[in-house]
Amino acid sequence: MHAATRPIVFRDRLDAARRLAERLQAYAGQNPLVLAIPRGAVPMAQCIAQALRGELDLVLVRKLGAPYQPEYAIGSVDESGWTYLSPHAAATGADAHYIATEKRRQLRLIHQRRAQYTPIRPPLEVAGRIVIVVDDGLATGATMAAALHSLRQRKPARLICAVPVASHEALALVRPLADEVACLQAPQDFEAVGQYYEDFTQVEDDEVIQILSKWASNAYL
Predict the structure, then answer these.
(1) DSSP state of 105
(2) CATH number reported for the structural domain that contains residue 162 in this entry
(3) What domain range is 139 assigned to?
């Protein structure tokens, strides 16, 4: 994106999802598997899966928070335990013991979320499919990197990262891990994902469970 171009400010996540769905129209009718990184991306992935006539599921990854700054990502971990660490992790004071403890804590949360969100079925099959991984934006890209790495091991036919907005740093991290990156904008002055949304209300667990439950019962199809 050119520095002089005015950044897009989305009304909300669904507005961003509709615009992403337009970008991804080439996959409509090919039964893509649209995977959300919970929680914010779940209503977005639902919208995109509907628009592309695909399937909806989750990919569960968690960021690893820095010591005394849990919102600052120093890496991420996926459902299998694979871990990505930022080159800057050590500078935050995160030693091997801290990282191991934080990894265990986040893996417990991943397993709790899997039991909570999809208690009666395993994750949908990835092998041989077009897989689109959705998030509401990338700041460091660490969580998306873990998701893409995890999914690549399951041998999708094509692996796509789809986000409305990302930092240049995040795009540089995730591009080698995906076959395609669909990003609507990458502003030069990126500070935080929420600055590109008029409404960036947090998505709660109850909404995630409701969306997945209705989708499983074909209420959205």
Answers:
(1) H
(2) 3.40.50.2020
(3) 13-61+125-214
